[in-house]
DNA sequence: GATTAGAGTGAACACCGTTAACAGTTAACG
DNA sequence: CGTTAACTGTTAACGGTGTTCACTCTAATC
């Protein structure tokens, strides 16, 4: 496919890609703090002000980098999801969750930049439209869709509306459309799955589990089994890792 | 109590406290990025090089600040734990967990600095001796001790050694002494409690739950109930918040 | 009272993100 | 085609940062 209009636009797009690639290398080699405008420019043989032709500021470059990382991770997970045509939805969910962990452990600097940085101001007016937030939403949607498919294929036992308090119930109801018609109790379990998976992977990737476990892999698998059971899944295939 | 030797040493200790206090104010007002040597010095009416009489580097100041924050948080949780002499151990655990959440939400900048920063290199040789790591261990011990007391008072049903895989079992056994003789299955559940609590609070404090919940309080309570049940606890008192 | 350790200063260095004014190249248009 | 405009890159500079060094002054010590 021959994308990109005139020669100039293509060259421009290529340069932008090179800048982000150089920033990515800096990130990998020296962490988020090493991704400086000057360091990136140096790597490309450019002077720092030249980068301002392509990004409004250092922050804009970081945002673009984060967006790309989310999209890359989303792509990886989608490939895992669609990898085996014979796999059932539950197995896909297992594999994607494990895939997220592997990606996080294999890309600690990237993962730290994406998930370790506290969200600046989630209540800002333009936050919803920010490209990094949208990329994060596309990423989260992978899990949401899988859980919704698990539910659609075989509804799992979940708390009744009475079990959830009225306050929580009201909030979960508001997300019913996004969760493709799942009842509040099922959304609650989906949220449960996500928060546990997130906490687990963050703790391991950020090294906050070393005091308790040398290799958190086995613990992760055990937790995944518990979480899968809550969603009515059978045991996952034994060939993980 | 009259601690501190000669007048000079006392003055020095007081200055160190003032520096950390100024750094804390900077942290609260402008986030971790605003805690600069120059900004702190400005607040104290000093020149930046003066701070080097008290801290080896900017990083050393940050480390000391983090250690203090951990100790402060630990103190707050200990006060909550020992607040009501009539409360049973399970209630204390509930209250302390809820207290951690409240503190995190009430001190977002401090919490972000403490927990949002990925641990630099947990495998470094001197990592164990670093003061911030030790303070973090003291903090974690509050929860560990409470769970151990819950177990000692009324052992809760937990996975058998066979349920846990051999790999996980071996690692949990190594932590048996630290967990005051609890069996591997019970340590597994204690770890479970901690990782879920950690993930939950981090996600809420870092604003990564806003897409799903406007007010995560009710969700937190529901999760705490589940987690308490896993530890054999009764319902917590209704007067939370 | 002389000596010495400590606290604080000003000047300087190297780095950072960012802006402005300027030059060369390349596409578009009459 | 020649002109014009837009785009890409430069150099110079500003204010900011953490950090070091040489220096002064003060206060505790022998």
TrEMBL record, chains A, B:
Pfam families: TetR_C_33, TetR_N. GO terms for molecular function: DNA-binding transcription factor activity; transcription cis-regulatory region binding. Keywords: DNA-binding, Transcription, Transcription regulation. Residues 13-73 form the HTH tetR-type domain. SUPFAM superfamilies: Homeodomain-like, Tetracyclin repressor-like, C-terminal domain. Signal peptide: none annotated. Transmembrane segments: none annotated. Residues 36-55 bind DNA. This is TetR family transcriptional regulator. It comes from Kribbella antiqua. The lineage of its organism: Bacteria, Bacillati, Actinomycetota, Actinomycetes, Propionibacteriales.
